[in-house]
Write a structure and sequence with these properties.
Helices cover 31% and strands 17% of the residues. With 1630 residues, it is of the alpha/beta class. The termini are far apart.
């Protein structure tokens, strides 16, 4: 029935719109203008065309049975701006790839993706065609989780894996006159062959020859019947010739042996064709005697039409795995569609570069008797040019073909977070032993992942350790099990469903087709773990490094310590601001205002090598992890010693030493040196310059690598690279330890020795978290920072410190404690750096090279950091040697200062490093804008022109291809300023005065200000009409006002904390910005210190005054690219008039991410540079993450053009903009709009005191203190003047260049050339990438900027809003009742209705009642942004993000009346519900997924069970849970109350006790509150669980726990004594 809708509709079919109106094809044509094809499409982010009949929906009736007939059809979307398909060739940037075998980051970054997946399995192992039909239907209902190319039609990929359909192939063989196939001895290959006939013949010849050599007989080739007419244009250009090859295997009987033979053949074929020019075009989707994969670059709904086999009744299988891909890269390749040969993967592997390097380094050691000595022939095991999914599939395939079962292979590769798991450690210790054993053998493939797998005998699914992808499962009475990314993908009779659940973090479910059993998580793992005595092996062989006390005295005198610090590059800032702060406080120092000094390579001051590296971070394709609140999934443990042969299991593999962290003190390093089994070898790292500097460093590195090689070959399992020496010698400087570690690591990988030994750095040149991270990222397993520890000891023993502690000016710490504090700060910093990239385990981070390089040349990179991206080239080894020497010589010169030099890298100081935002600059700017003095502005411009080289654009200048023109002919300043925006500075980080003055100025100009992440006061949304003499009683704290001014921010920001994000806030925006990352601290959430949370700020943010506010590092509704597309959809839903912008931070690979964002239907993409400002961030984040916007913008602009997506989005850029020159540089590199942050604050009065994080800003710009805010000097006119000056500067340069409008130079890199300017450190910088061009957009920038807001197309809300009764109810505040059917493809339902209500009545003003009942399976974000008066009931089930951002109303979710399962045991809504809710009530009869009520501000909810992280970051409201919860309850919960029923006494270990207090419900008001909620729940949902509790209230009440954060301790609900005290007070007052 459902599959009919997958067949092509006839031309006479009328298009039925979702509201039931029909368009005949003829009448439809008349609405299309010639040559502009309006695409009627399925909304897939990229408006993929749908070729299906839309469903008909009638409103107000509950019976819509006819709908099931067109089940799998989806609502259509019309792309409002008539975007035409693009024709661009995908230009290949043939950069010279290093010939090394090491994984190259650029290859890895070019392919990333996410998806929707699922499987169907028949437990009776009965093969039917229905299974295949159902899989295709389910696939069609996940079309919105996939992506499309710029032609709107080429899917990013979809596919099916099933058992081989022997009936179908027998039928074919019969027709060909061949004998029937012998199933037990026949293999089938699904092959993508080259398109070109000649190449195809050659490829077939290689395949046939290889099979023949292996003794296999090729029975025949079958061209796979396909319908090419439905393939999109881009996909067609690369479409392979698809054939199946049938081979007979005679020599093997066992299935395992047959599959291994197939595997060897495939590997031999891949090797044989590698050097052919068509080699990349040959690909085996599958080659097996069990399973087969049908896939392609297709949209999910056309997969079944493309492969006619899939429509045949003879195609039968007992199971099917299906997959729909969303690739961030818009030119996905056919082979990268999924499923792969074993796996269907939805997610992203963040550690892929390290995984590939480690897989390669273990190639020589992998041996197993099953291969009969043929291991050499099956290498390599990875391919950097394939996707992360393909590589994970290869690793799993290797393990399975070597004899592991699929469950075991996945437990090894993707282990769960077993360390902090109360139930696992107590009930299933053998599972923990299994993980402990393999932890030292295989680094986890870490990142968000839902993995579906099958070898033909078992079908299963498992989830990553953090539960970051949705996975729901259900089972029916007819013995079929379903797993899918979403519920509702298939029509289901709920009375036949016997089980409903979800996979939680690290969980697995498998179906054994042979014995017809379903095994849930612990059953699967227990079986695997008991197969060997892992616990015994660990006990006998694994050693744990015992902690050793720190040294109690300094080892050197003060002069000697100083000389060492000078030689190794320490500055006084490093010692005082970094090391001493960490020793005193045990945490990293916080600073503000961003990084405005030159990149290390541009600086005139010497820098340590680490400063050339920037940390990479997660944005969009995977989330950062939260090390503060979700640290339970993270671990710094690392194993030292030889890694064994992963293909063989045995006690010897456990012979390692386990370190609890990589930070070692001197005593611990000594213990490792004494371990007889490790045979540690010290390798000194110095280079000799007696014969001159040139060549000396290279020679020393060569010798070092040879020594390392010899040591490992002689049995050493631990190499200690050390720069300690008895006596420092002037002619023997230390090699930078990062260079030494990287070189040895790479050398050992190349020589196949890397897994035989671990590397530890014993070094003086490591003291900050970034430096530790670099050493570990490039291969060190441990670091002993001996000089940093010595510096801690020196500080603690100094007279100054002793006196300060004695006088109470700082807390007293012992010398032991000071060193402990330092190490503690390093460890927390490391967790934060790992988590930025979404990596949970240090063992996976080690060697993963999660950095990019700015300013090192290929000579250095290829030697020590092979595979890392270094786009601009830079220093040679000799130049690096000279820079190293410039530190070293300071220790030996006669006039050595008696104190460390202050380089001024952090704080501006005279004679120190140049800072872009300096006092002189701000004084000149204040003079120009306050006096409105043009000549003063010229002095400001001159100051900028004369500055030292500070940013990459300072190395570039303009050139013109035409004569200049008069300025009068150039576009007006009034037009140019409309392209200007200000940065997203939150009200809270800056004062109300600054925030409002900036907004008023931008509104006067017609530019855009940005609210930042703190919400906004509604009083600002109306124009002022009461201004007298520049003052208004509406905004009495501002001066310089005019009637008609508005203080609203045109851009309203949605950040991860969702502070202040209400429906009314959203509908009052011109643009909505999703802040994925911030330039000053990408990968981290915002933080507002408690002292800046005034009563006013707390009111806007729905939180408590004085309580610090921290935003989560990730958006909890964006764990992948398709999640971002969903949030964009939600925002377009609630405010269809607002453009949605996505803010990213520059890093290598941003072009790929931006392509995905453009496909996700964003209107604007903003690229921020690393030098943006911040109100408060850790120093290491400000200094060491993110890249220059010049590179990020160039990569984004060019990738979008190559992929035909540039016209879809406005490109905006910000980061350190100060002048018209900056604007024009950005324009030439491709930007349409320009953001100014810090300089806009300076123009309104900021004096760059750089103490924003302290709340003590002397001019009230960044303070919430009333007395300081009263000093605020700025008026809106100052900022207006600044922007008009900048616009005039732009006009002047345009006139000089001979252009009359900005449009004409956007993307024109041919107008730029390198400037002849000398840099102190190197002349090797290469700006070719920034100056290159791949063509121009097809539309002008003005056309791109003025296109309509991208549409979600017709949606269910539109149908409801077109109903006269609903219109009347909203218009006249009446009550109305409606019932309507809902499907999983109906997403963000109610959001648009809520927007209409909020626009008219605000968040609380609506007095009507919209009572709407939905029946069925709701799509994502159901009931988002509800307002009071909206009473929504869902009878059925829902997916993720239910009740997101709701501000009021009531939401009830219950299963249908007659279910085959027990409602309170079933999961009926998905993950991350009530995210950022600010009001309303929710009642759910059943369980929910992970992160229920995350960042809930004021909503009240009753549910019957939740997953992990319930009530995380909650700041208000109340949550009642009548069942089991997962781990980490109430992490970061600073407000509100939670009541949790604990029937089996297991709750206490699951609660995060950092903030909340756990107590029984003793306060009478609390008991009444709890009982009232349960009574409402029973009344509204009919809950049998709630009914049972009320019936035996006295028995159940003592089983409830109440979780109380400090801010709620004195409330009547939480405080037993409250009523007693209140009674006493009332007596006294009487």
């Amino acid at each position: 029935m459902a599959v009919q809708s997958l067949l092509p509709t006839t031309t006479t079919t009328h298009l039925l719109y979702s509201n039931g109106t029909s368009l005949s094809p003829l009448s439809m044509k008349t609405t299309i203008t010639p040559n502009k094809s309006v695409v009627f499409n399925d909304f897939v982010g990229l408006y993929c065309k749908s070729k299906r009949t839309p469903r008909k929906i009638g409103v107000g009736t509950s019976s819509r049975g006819s709908l099931l007939k067109t089940w799998s059809t989806t609502s259509k979307a019309v792309f409002s701006s008539n975007l035409q398909p693009k024709t661009t060739s995908n230009i290949d940037s043939n950069k010279k790839k290093s010939e090394s075998k090491v994984a190259n980051l650029e290859d890895i970054l070019s392919e990333r993706g996410a998806c929707g997946v699922g499987f169907i399995a028949n437990l009776d192992n009965i093969a039917t065609h229905q299974t295949v039909k159902d899989a295709l239907t389910a696939l069609s209902c996940m079309e919105h989780r996939g992506g499309c190319g710029a032609d709107n039609d080429s899917g990013d990929g979809s596919g099916l894996m099933t058992l081989i359909p022997w009936d179908l192939f027998d039928n074919w063989a019969n027709k060909q006159g061949l004998a029937l196939l012998d199933k037990s001895h026949t293999g089938v290959g699904m092959v993508f062959l080259p398109k070109d006939d000649e190449s195809m013949k050659e490829a077939k010849r290689v395949i046939i020859d290889t099979f023949k050599q292996e003794g296999l007989e090729v029975l025949g080739w079958r061209p796979v019947p396909v319908n090419t007419s439905i393939v999109g244009r881009f996909a067609k250009e690369t479409m392979p010739n698809i054939q199946q090859v049938f081979v007979k295997i005679l020599k093997d009987e066992e299935i395992g042996d047959i599959e291994r033979e197939m595997y060897i053949c495939r590997k031999l074929i891949e090797k044989a064709v590698k050097s052919e020019k068509w080699g990349e075009e040959l690909y085996f989707c599958s080659l097996s005697s069990q399973t087969i994969v049908y896939k392609g670059m297709l949209r999910s709904e056309v997969l079944g039409l493309f492969y006619s086999d899939l429509q045949s009744d003879l195609y039968k299988s007992p199971f099917a795995i299906y997959h729909r891909r969303y690739s961030t890269n818009t030119s996905p390749r056919w082979p990268l569609a999924q499923p792969m040969r074993f796996l269907g993967h939805n997610g992203e592997i963040n550690t892929i570069q390290g995984n590939l390097n480690w897989m390669q380094s273990r190639e020589t050691s992998l041996k197993s008797p099953v291969w009969h000595g043929r291991e050499n022939e099956i290498r390599p095991y990875g391919n950097p040019r394939a996707s992360d999914s393909a590589n994970l599939d290869s690793a799993a395939e290797l393990l399975i073909r070597s004899g592991r079962n699929p469950e075991e292979a996945l437990m090894i590769l993707v282990p769960e977070a077993y360390k902090n798991h109360p139930t696992l450690m107590i009930k299933y210790p053998e599972v923990a032993d299994f993980y402990d054993y393999y932890k030292g053998q295989m680094e986890a493939w870490d990142g968000p992942a839902l993995l579906l797998f099958s070898d033909g005998k078992t079908v299963g699914a498992c989830l990553d350790r953090n539960g970051l992808r949705p996975a729901r499962y259900w089972r029916t009475v007819d013995n079929v099990v379903y797993v899918a990314s979403e519920v509702g993908v298939l029509p289901m009779d709920e009375s036949k469903v016997t089980m409903k659940g979800r996979l939680g973090p690290g969980m697995m479910i498998t179906v054994d087709l042979q014995d017809g059993q379903v095994y849930e998580n612990t059953e699967v793992k227990k079986r695997v773990a008991l197969s060997n005595p892992y616990g015994k092996w660990l006990k006998e062989n694994m050693r744990t490094l015992k902690s050793v006390n720190f040294l109690p005295q300094t080892e050197m005198d003060n002069d000697e310590i100083l000389r060492h610090q000078q030689a190794f590059g320490y500055s006084s800032e490093d010692v005082q601001m970094v090391i001493e702060t960490m020793a005193a406080q045990g945490k990293e120092p916080t600073f503000c205002m961003g990084d405005d000094i030159p990149l290390a390579v541009l600086s005139q001051k010497p820098h340590m090598l680490y400063d050339y590296f920037k940390q990479r971070f997660a944005q969009v394709t995977n989330p950062a992890i939260d090390p503060l609140r979700e640290g339970l999934v993270m671990s710094l443990e690392v194993n030292i010693g030889k890694r064994g042969n992963i293909l063989e299991v045995g006690p010897e593999n456990a012979e390692q030493v386990m370190l609890s962290s990589p930070v070692l003190n001197e005593g611990e390093l000594e213990s490792l040196m004494k371990d007889s089994r490790l045979k540690a070898q010290i390798l000194p790292i110095f280079f000799d310059i007696r014969k001159g500097v040139d060549g000396s460093l290279e020679k020393a590195l060569k010798r070092l690598c040879e020594a390392a090689d010899d040591a490992v070959r002689n049995g050493s399992q631990l190499l200690v690279l050390s720069d300690r020496s008895e006596e420092m010698e002037p002619t023997r400087p230390a090699i930078p330890v990062l260079l030494a570690v990287g070189a040895v690591h790479q050398h050992l990988i190349q020589n196949g020795l890397r897994i035989s030994a671990s590397i530890i750095a014993d070094t003086a040149q490591c003291f900050s978290t970034h430096q530790f991270a670099c050493l570990i990222g490039y291969g060190a397993s441990g670091v002993c920072p001996h000089l940093a520890l010595e510096t801690c000891r020196q500080w603690r023993l100094s007279n100054k410190t002793v006196n300060q502690m004695r006088n109470g000016k700082m807390p007293t710490v012992t010398i032991e404690q000071a060193q402990k504090n330092f190490c503690k700060a390093v460890k927390s910093g490391l967790l934060k750096i790992l988590s930025k990239m979404g990596i949970s385990l240090l063992s996976s981070y080690c060697g993963a090279q999660i950095f990019e390089i700015y300013g090192l040349g290929s000579e250095i990179v290829d030697l020590a950091f092979c595979g890392s991206v270094s786009k601009i080239g830079g220093l040679t080894l000799d130049e690096l040697a000279r820079e190293t020497m410039s530190f070293w010589v300071k220790a030996f010169s006669e006039d050595t200062a008696k104190r460390l030099e202050n380089f001024g890298f952090i704080q501006m100081r005279v004679g120190g490093e140049y800072h872009g935002n300096n006092p002189e600059m701000s004084k000149l700017l204040h003079k120009a804008v306050r006096e409105r003095n043009e000549s003063a502005f010229s002095v400001y411009q001159q100051h900028l022109a004369n500055r030292p080289v500070n940013v990459l654009r300072d190395l570039i200048e303009f050139k013109s291809d035409r004569p200049s023109i008069p300025v009068g002919k150039v576009e007006s300043a009034a037009s140019i300023v409309q392209r200007f925006c200000t940065g997203g500075m939150s009200l809270g980080a800056i004062s109300r005065e600054t925030h409002e003055a900036i907004a008023i100025a931008m509104n006067r100009l017609g530019g855009k200000s940005n609210s930042g992440e703190g919400g906004e006061d509604p009083i600002r949304w109306s124009p002022l009409s009461d201004v007298v003499d520049g003052y208004s009683s509406t905004l009495p704290h501002l001066k310089g006002l005019q009637n008609g001014d508005t203080a609203t921010s045109a851009i309203k920001q949605v950040a991860s904390g969702r502070f202040g994000v209400t429906p009314t806030f959203l509908v009052n925006a011109d643009q909505l910005e999703i802040k994925i990352a911030q330039g000053a601290k990408p990968g981290e959430g915002g933080q507002l210190p408690g002292k800046k949370v005034s009563a006013y700020i707390a009111r806007l943010r729905n939180s408590k005054p004085g309580v610090p506010l921290i935003s989560p590092p990730p958006h909890h509704d964006i764990y992948s690219i398709e999640d971002l597309a969903q949030l964009i959809y939600d925002l377009h839903q609630v405010n269809p008039k607002a453009k949605v912008s996505v803010k990213l931070v520059a890093e290598a690979g941003i072009g790929t991410v931006a392509s995905g964002v453009a496909k996700g239907n964003a209107d604007v993409i903003q690229i921020s540079g690393h030098d943006g400002g911040t109100g408060a961030s850790p120093i290491s984040s400000i200094k060491h993450a993110g890249g220059p916007w010049e590179l990020g913008l160039t990569e984004t602009h060019q990738t979008l053009i190559e992929n035909g997506l540039r016209e879809r989005v406005i490109l905006r850029v910000d980061g350190g903009f100060k002048s018209g020159v900056d604007v024009l540089m950005a324009a030439a590199m491709g930007a349409d709009e320009y953001g100014f942050g810090s300089v806009a604050m300076i123009a309104t009065g900021c004096v760059m005191a750089r103490i924003c994080h302290t709340n003590n800003c002397p001019v009230g710009v960044a303070s919430q203190r009333e007395e300081l805010r009263a000093r605020f000097p700025g008026v809106p006119g100052d900022l207006v003047n600044f922007f008009l000056y900048v616009a005039e500067e732009v006009r002047g340069i345009l006139a000089q260049l001979g252009y009359d409008k900005l449009d004409d130079i956007i993307g024109r890199t041919d107008l730029l050339r390198p400037r002849h300017v000398s840099i102190v450190k190197t002349q090797q910088l290469d700006l070719g990438y920034i100056l290159s061009s791949v063509g121009l957009p097809k539309w002008s920038s003005t056309a791109i900027r003025s296109q309509d807001v991208h549409s979600n197309g017709p949606v269910l809300d539109d149908i409801l809003l077109s109903d006269p009764e609903i219109i009347d109810a909203i218009e006249h505040e009446k009550a109305v009742c409606k019932t309507i059917k809902i499907y999983n493809i109906d997403r963000a339902v109610c959001g648009r209705i809520a927007g209409v209500v909020a626009k008219k009545y605000g968040d609380t003003g609506f007095a009507g009642q919209l009572n709407i009942t939905f029946t069925g399976s709701a799509g994502q974000s159901f009931a988002c942004f509800l307002t009071p008066g909206m009473n929504i009931r869902l009878v059925g089930e829902a997916n993720d993000y239910v009740g997101k951002g709701m501000a009021g109303g009531e939401l009830i979710v219950t299963p249908v009346e007659s279910t085959g399962f027990c409602p309170e045991e079933a999961t009926i809504v998905g993950n991350t519900c009530l995210y950022g809710a600010t009001g309303g009530q929710v009642f759910i009869r059943g369980k929910t997924g992970e992160r229920f009520a995350v960042r809930n501000s004021l909503a009240q909810a009753v549910v019957e069970g939740t997953g992990d992280h319930c009530c995380e970051y909650m700041t208000g409201g109340c949550v009642v849970v009548l069942g089991k919860v997962g781990r980490n309850v109430a992490a970061g919960m600073t407000g509100g109350l939670a009541y949790i029923l604990d029937e089996d006494d297991t709750l206490i270990p699951k609660v995060n006790k950092e903030i909340v207090k756990i107590q029984r419900v003793t306060a009478p008001a609390g008991q009444i509150q709890l009982k009232n909620f349960i009574e409402s729940h029973v009344e509204k949902t009919g809950s049998s669980k709630g009914f049972a509790i009320l019936k035996e209230w006295e028995k159940y009440l003592p089983l409830f726990w109440q979780l109380v954060p400090p801010s709620e301790e004195d409330t009547p609900e939480a405080c037993f004594d409250f009523e007693v005290a209140a009674a006493q007070v009332s007596l006294q007052s009487a």
